[in-house]
Amino acid sequence: MNIALIGCGRISKKHIEAIKKNNLNLVAVCDIDLNKAKKIGVPYYKDYNEMLKKEKIDIVSILTPSGMHYKHALDVIEHKKHLIIEKPMTLRYFEAENLVKLAKKVGTKLFTVKQNRFNLPIKKIKESKNKLGKIFLATTRVRWSRTQEYYNMDNWRGTWEYDGGVISNQAIHHLDLLIYLVGDIESVYAKSINAFAKIETEDTAVATLKFKNGAVGTFEATTATRPKDIEGSISLLGNKGMVEIGGFAANKIVKWELDEQIDIKKYSQNPENVYGFGHMEFYKDVIESIEDNKKGICEMEEGIKSIKVMNAMYESIATNKEIFIDNLKLEKAKIGK
């Protein structure tokens, strides 16, 4: 299958590695900065609509700033190409819902990049989840370091219109893992501050969560950790045991108190950065989903759930109220505006 990229920024390297390892043909790339596009060594474009018309493409990966995803995805769906979108699919949930609706209408598949679902510890806990019994408490902690230099790399970083803050950019992965492992979230109550970063949005946030299955949870996320990344962790407590995944990319089993003996080292990884190893497995799942016409692990509606929770957190911060996901309305939240 032939694939093309829209956006050749920082994350494109991980995608290109995964594309090559999965024997996909990278036939073209597009970026408004042609210097970035040229370096990849395939036909390059400044206008992605021109690329979509001229090149024979089966899949398009959108790797542009989050606030641009919706417009770019609408155009790709119009060309009836299968679609991969970096997280979050969009900055506002109703835009994501519309993309899924349109993709189904034209018969294309749409996937959101959630590479941490493919981490060895996450896969093992998903497999052994029933051994926890009834989960009553779930916690995630994202303690990462993003200096002012990081935010200054591009003028869209840390803006409400194109990026959001730590909730929508970094911790959206961990919100997704909580939903993936525990279940749908019923309500959130959140607070945030801007500890160090000179940006429009937050660099630090906390929230309490209520799950539809009765469990409660806590969420803690910051990019103000100094001097380096500490952890991206998930803890699950049930009436039959508990597990904790740590490492700085949810890549290491720290505690395994279940009625199942395992070699913890076997399920622990040590990636060189917070992007982890999951992109290769993500692309493998996408290919199998398209070729075998089966639902992918990160397909369609799977990309909407964490956006709704993220949006609810921002609405909670703006209104100082508990926000219920099923009744969510974005009235005061600035995300995506």
TrEMBL record:
Domain Gfo/Idh/MocA-like oxidoreductase C-terminal: from-to ranges: 129-321
Stored InterPro entries: Gfo/Idh/MocA-like_OxRdtase_C, Gfo/Idh/MocA-like_OxRdtase_N, Gfo/Idh/MocA_Oxidoreductase, NAD(P)-bd_dom_sf
Boundaries of every Gfo/Idh/MocA-like oxidoreductase N-terminal domain copy: 1-111
Oxidoreductase in keyword set: yes
Keywords linked to the UniProt accession: Oxidoreductase
Domain of life: Bacteria
GO molecular function: nucleotide binding; oxidoreductase activity
EC number of this enzyme: 1.1.1.335
Record-given protein name: UDP-N-acetyl-2-amino-2-deoxyglucuronate dehydrogenase
Origin organism lineage: Bacteria, Pseudomonadati, Campylobacterota, Epsilonproteobacteria, Nautiliales
